[in-house]
Amino acid sequence: MDYIRLADILFPDVTASPEDMEQKFPPRSLPEGACVTRIGPSPTGFVHLGNLYNALIGERIAHQSGGVFYLRIEDTDNKREVEGAVETVINAMNYFGVHFDEGAVSDGDNGSYGPYRQRQRKDIYHVFAKHLVQRGLAYPCFLTAEEIDTLREQQTAAKENPGIYGKYAKYRDTSIEEVQQLIASGKEWVLRYRGTETDEYISVNDAIRGKVEMPRNNMDFVLLKSDGIPTYHFAHVVDDHLMRSTHVIRGEEWLSSLPMHVELFNALGWQQPVYCHTATLMKLEGTGKRKLSKRKDPELALSYYQQEGISPDAIWEFLLTVLNSNFEEWRLADPDADYKDFPYSLSKMSISGALVDLDKLRNISKDVIGRMPAEKIRESWLEWCDEYNKDFAELIRKYPERTLAALNVGRNAAKPRKDLETWKQACDFMSFYYDETFKVTDEMPAECDEATRKQFFAEYLASYDHSDDSAAWFDKVKALTDKLGFAVKPKDYKKNPDQFKGSIVHITNMLRIALTGHANAPDIHEVSHVLGEDIVRARLAKWC
Ligand code: GLU
Fold first, then answer.
1. Is-contact 323 349, C-beta < 8 A?
2. Dihedral angle sign, alpha carbons of residues 286, 290, 295, 298
3. Angle 469-474-476 from CA coordinates, rounded to 5°
4. 346-371 pLDDT, tens per residue?
5. pLDDT tens digits, 119-170
């Protein structure tokens, strides 16, 4: 068969050669050992945690080695595309502090290995498609979806492997004349790779999983769909070669198609990148684990973390904990180090499913915020409020100094308080510092009846001196506790409950609730100084 002629019939407009492409996108000049990595999200409008997870690995591998990390938009699946989705991906990554050196930007491209949107690369794929046809390695196939379905049913019934291969590849050797006729009659075609019937195995050294052995591809899989747009398989191989990726980091769901990719790299004579198939994100359910699901688990969407106001640093720490088994140990040894100094390594990755545990994330987040200077907390929290809680943003702007002082409450103690978990929860927790949002939500302790309350607050205010230091202030509280018939030492009350109305715990809880609305709040003396004398007096006077 005259494959050169067939190629000209199928791709009359393609004049460039593979060599032209090699020249246009030459190997990058990077230092020895520098890695080139990418993420290739589909523009579906839904950016999931897995995208960030893979991005973080790619970013670390590239930037730790002085290489390049880029964004490629994998938009070959027309049906899934949503308007504005590219911007959504870029913004989400940006929010989480993942920055690309190169790739798609909202209004075009940044870099010389583009275009970085696959639909815009059609001409490039066609150069290699034509080349494969010329070499007899690809051919047009006119099977309809119905014919393929019927075939699949027959194969399944006969206990044969389903698919287009060997004797089932009906159009493999169709004559040029017939191909011309079929095309002229308007029949749609796809371009298929010509698979080899073989018992061979391929062996790939996955950087995460180690040696992976699989049967070599024998399928006539699709390279170009009927609209001339490539499948993921063809686009992946062409793009990662021409963009000079050294490592392909992607979810383990792609592992099963690896034989097709290996086949294409070999057929095109290109060096394979290092494959890194990452473990699927799982969550605990009951006594077992299951895959995170888009329908059931809001935490799969990256937007969830933005809406909850989980700081990007916390997400990084959390994902590094999930990703590298030695991260926690490293963090314990040096609590103040920048996580970017952690020597991330592919070989320390789990392959048995990465566990997304939101309680763990919240704990990490508490530690992360606990380590942040108050100014930084105020700034990041305000940034989040500007987007998600405008009323609160106004309060932070109206009372910048009070906010800062409030954020510092309890932080200088031997065991610093870690009250804040997320920016959303901070709006709740911090609400008592502002009259505009202050609300008494907890019930006063039952031990403190109305008469006790009235007397306590009246006397407390009468002797209140805002300039008292913590010890002087507490002495007054103790004296008043005693006067009201409450035990100054909680253990005395425990021993002889009949002798007292309650203990100092009830008294201070009452005071704390009047001042902050909650029994569980930071130190009263410190809080009073953040609020200022006027607010303290006004809040307590309501109970007299
Ligand atoms: N577009 C693919 C996905 O969203 C990317 C896989 C890859 O990184 O190669 O899963």
1. yes
2. positive
3. 105
4. 888 877 778 889 999 999 999 999 99
5. 999 999 999 999 999 999 999 999 999 999 999 999 999 999 999 999 999 9
Q: Is 130 in the pocket of ligand 1 (CB under 6 A)?
A: no
Q: How confident is the model at residue 53 (pLDDT cuts 50, 70, 90)?
A: very high
From the list 319, 315, 318, 297, the residue with the least C-alpha distance to 306 is 315
Q: For a substitution probing ligand 1, which of 49, 74, 79, 261 has the most ligand atoms within 8 Å of its CB?
A: 74
Question: 541: which strand partners?
Answer: none
- Please give the Cα distance from 229 to 473 (Å, whole number): 76
pLDDT band at residue 541 under the 50/70/90 scheme: very high
pLDDT of residue 416: 84
Task: Say yes or no to pLDDT of 40 above 90.
Answer: yes
Q: What is the residue-averaged pLDDT of the chain?
A: 94
39 CA: nearest ligand 1 atom: 8
- Report DSSP state, residue 355: E
Paired sense of beta strands 222-224 and 190-193, if any: antiparallel
Rg (CA), the chain: 33
Q: How far apart are CA 513 and CA 444, in angstroms?
A: 7
Q: How far is the CA of 250 from the centre of ligand 1 (A)?
A: 6
Instruction: Kindly report the number of other CB atoms within 10 A of residue 517's CB atom.
Output: 17
Core vs surface per residue 331-367: b (16+ CB within 10 A) or e: beeeeeeebeebebebeebeeeebbbbbeebbebbbe
Q: Ligand 1: which of 254, 255, 272, 281 to mutate, most ligand atoms within 8 Å of CB?
A: 254
SS3 per residue for 445-485? CCCCCHHHHHHHHHHHHHHCCCCCCHHHHHHHHHHHHHHCC
Residue linked to tokens 């068969």: 1
Find out whether the beta carbon of 74 lies less than 6 Å from any atom of ligand 1.
yes
What average pLDDT does the segment 207-226 reach? 96
- CA atoms of 405 and 403, how far apart (whole Å): 5
- 117 in contact with ligand 1, CB cutoff 6 A: no
pLDDT in tens, 197-209: 999 999 999 999 9
* 275 CA to centre of ligand 1 in angstroms: 13
Strand 36-39 and strand 68-71: pairing? parallel
pLDDT of residue 382: 98
Give me ligand 1 centre to Cα 73, in Å. 9
CA of 72 to the centre of ligand 1 (A): 9
**Could you tell me the pLDDT band of residue 335, with boundaries at 50, 70 and 90?**
confident
